[in-house]
Amino acid sequence: MTRWREPIERMLRRIDDTAARVKDAFPHWSDPATGQWVTTPHGDWTGGCWVGMLWGAHALTGERKHRELAGTLVERLRGRIDAETGFKSFPFYYAGAAGWIVARDAAARDVALACARAYRRLYRPSLRLVPLGEQAEEGSHIGPAETSIDSLQTAPFLFWAAREGAPEVRDIAVSHAERVIALHLRPDGSFIQSSSLDPVTGELVKHYTHKGYSDTSTWGRAQAWGTLFSTMCFREESSRRAWLDAAVRGAEWWMRHVPADRVAYWDFDDPAIPGTERDTAATAIAAAALLKLALVAPEPDRARYRAFAETTVDALTGRYLSPAGVLTESCFNKRPDARPMDAANRCEFIVGSYYLFETLLALDGTIAAAEI
């Protein structure tokens, strides 16, 4: 038994507790003091992470209860296949594609492939990417030609689909990854979150940070997303050395700027540091990114990235993962105009919990970091 098994067991207890609390709803975020979840009926952009945790729990325990609940929730996602948002790749990857990768669930694979094929309608040749879309989480705040580093997740989802039976979406994956990385990677290796494009020409109109401290700041999750999804894209298309370069530069920036205790603040440029919120969700995403990067980076740096991932996980599980398996101190959304369902920080956030659980299972050898 590895040293990772004890925190895995804590998280497994929370998974079973969450399943009992939310039944057939999708957990979104919870109050760590009570353990009560705010849920969504159809998964929003976060619900796939809950299903992904169930697939992981099944891989660990072999118990059918996790697989059966995951399968029920995957079926609930069918109604979102044609949703007008690029963010739907999150639920369909972690609920659908992961169901096939981890548990060889054919129904999960079929649902994910159907969603991937629907992306052909969302892709905009003038922009050379899939825009966020009117049904994106922040759709009420943005225009028709917006993109973000978060949306880079679309590319690994479509790469997976192209390998699994939808080769017609591969060119979209390449184009989307190429454009989103180029738009959001700064010269110093940090990632800006968001971009407005001209809807006719596709030219950049402005950069900004939708959820961070300021339009020029580095939001914690943006840096983590950029590093993770650049790594996953390169894993699928290893001839694209610029994508590996983006992942490496993003990782190096993270390691230089994260506090010595390994847990990031919600925004690296908040002037209130150190008296502001941490973000364990951003930190868990970064740990997942570093562990994956350790498999594809140039050989001299692989051990260093893995070691940093391990010490990051140690920091999260040692100081922020409660005995009941609740990952505390996630900063979900500090925007004053956030949707009421999103107005939370210092919470348990299902996205952060997913990435910590995935990384623990990969470190433990239950799942393969190279595949998920």
Can you walk through the features of this model?
The chain has 372 residues and is of the alpha+beta class. It has helices at residues 5-22, 47-61, 64-76, 89-103, 106-122, 154-164, 170-184, 220-236, 241-257, 280-296, 299-319, 350-364; strands at residues 26-30, 37-40, 146-148, 194-197, 204-208, 330-331, 345-349. The mean pLDDT is 95.
Task: Name the descriptors.
alpha+beta; four-stranded antiparallel β-sheet; 372 residues; 2 domains
Annotate the secondary structure layout.
Elements: H1 5-22, E1 26-30, E2 37-40, H2 47-61, H3 64-76, H4 89-103, H5 106-122, E3 146-148, H6 154-164, H7 170-184, E4 194-197, E5 204-208, H8 220-236, H9 241-257, H10 280-296, H11 299-319, E6 330-331, E7 345-349, H12 350-364
Antiparallel strand pairs: 1-2, 1-7, 3-4, 4-5, 6-7
Helix pairs in contact: 1-12, 2-3, 2-4, 2-12, 3-4, 4-5, 4-6, 5-6, 6-7, 6-8, 8-9, 8-10, 9-10, 10-11, 10-12
